[in-house]
Amino acid sequence: FRKLGLSLAKDDIVQLKEAYKWIIHPQLSEELGVPADGKSLFEVSVVFAHPETDEECHFLATACPDCFKPAKNKQSVFTRMAVIKALEKIKEEDFLKHFPCPPSSPKNLCVALEIQCNNGAVFVAGRYNKYSRNLPQTPWIIDGERKLESSVEELISEHLMAEFKAESFNFSSSGREDVDVRTLGKGRPFAIELVNPRRIHFTAEEMKGLQQTINNSSDKIQVRDLQLVTRSAIGRMKEGEEEKTKTYSALIWTDKAIQKEDIAFLDDIKELKLDQKTPLRVLHRRPLAVRCRIIHTMQSEYIDEHHFRLHLKTQAGTYIKEFVHGDFGRTKPNIGSLLNRTADILELDVESVDVDWPPTLDN
Amino acid sequence: RICVITLAEAHPLLQSGKTIKSINYQISANCSRLQNKVSGKSKRVRLFDLGAQFLTELAPLCRISSSDGEEYTIYSCIRGRLIEVNENILSNPAILQEKPSTEGYIAVVLPKFEESKSVTQGLLTQKEYEEVLLKRLNSSS
């Protein structure tokens, strides 16, 4: 090519799969009677085999041995990345010693081995409220036996799976609450990935209708702001889990009597630093560590000599129950140590999850 | 099932008149229950990764000396992995006697998943324990 005075940039070289698409799209389009959209969520993957050239690139291993290191997971050492790396490294003269340029014409056509159709996943987001003190986030099954009926994710996803005609779902939320904790206020953001959905087009009205169906089907949970979102949504939601504040309401019991004056000082404490060791109740599945968390503000509501309600605004990731009862002294300070009594938590509600995503819809 | 090891209510150290002089987690020349290994890719500080310390029933956890010269060895009493020892009682021995069943705990042990049931079955319920104490009282009088 150089002799002809033409210079080719890397981008000028057409990728094989692009050329294939240019050829096949019009043919599919004509056959099926619909326009072809190369950027749609519907994916057809075709696997080709061409045995005569399978080992064509193996010569690169002798020329560039350090590009091809065997790794446990890989079937073959000649991965696409490794070959590209070697091609960049090898000098033109060395390459030409082993391989003709331009390459010789193949003798056989390649064969289509496998054709698979797949619908790209769609994402539905919203916020959920939880009104039951007996509902786990995910199904609670031990040794094949379901310990508690249903779960937050099943109650929300059931209807979505049916309408979107999806194969399976992945539910994630901006943090989560215990089985016995309610989620009030505007609720907690969640996102559901619907895998291989057969139906993906829904109008805003239809989404509203879906939301209503879910809300009519259960009084244990309610959803709002139900909408279709992009994959990047998950990132925004997880951001909230680590960074944003949460507010709670806790019903607290004390062993020794308290008067209104005894708890008033809690309202004045700002930015209280806690050192929380991994709570005993989760130690069987989490590593032992110490986490520093901040209680931004507190507001107490005296009930009687042994009870009061505490509203708190805390940093994400704070264990509230442990802040109240102290977890054998492993969360310091705690309500017990602050009040110089033994305290325990009777009820906990999430009042708000301060993440401004997903966008609020006028429901 | 996570287990918290504490002193039983009838333990001599919890009877009136006893003052704790010292608590020692150094069991032998080579073994301290306080070994502090910081490991792992955790972005938070890892405390006491005592994963290497597997305990059997008779493994000593610590030795406690009282001011009257007596020394008591506290044993694990169950099989399991030592997760954590309570450092709070080192800095504040009083809580061992004031709150033996909560802040004054000795250690946290995690039995092997397969052994969880057999470990629990080898223990006494509160009621059974009280019966044992009653029998002990009657036989000595």
From TrEMBL, chain A:
Keyword tRNA processing found: yes
GO BP terms in the entry: tRNA pseudouridine synthesis
Residue intervals of the Pus10-like C-terminal domain: 123-354
Record-level Gene Ontology MF annotations: RNA binding; tRNA pseudouridine(55) synthase activity
Enzyme class of the recorded protein, top EC level: isomerase
Domain of life: Eukaryota
UniProt entry keywords in alphabetical sequence: Isomerase, tRNA processing
EC id: 5.4.99.25
Family: Belongs to the pseudouridine synthase Pus10 family.
NCBIfam families found in the cross-reference section: pseudo_Pus10arc (TIGR01213)
Full protein name: tRNA pseudouridine(55) synthase
UniProtKB/TrEMBL annotation, chain B:
GO biological process annotation, one example: regulation of actin filament polymerization
Entry keyword set: Cell projection, Nucleus
Signal sequence region: none
Listed GO CC annotations: dendrite; filopodium tip; growth cone; lamellipodium; nuclear speck
UniProt-listed InterPro entries: Abitram, GCV_H/Fam206, Single_hybrid_motif
Compartments, record wording: Cell projection, Dendrite; Cell projection, Growth cone; Cell projection, Lamellipodium; Nucleus speckle
Family: Belongs to the ABITRAM family.
Name of the featured protein: Protein Abitram
The encoding gene: Fam206a
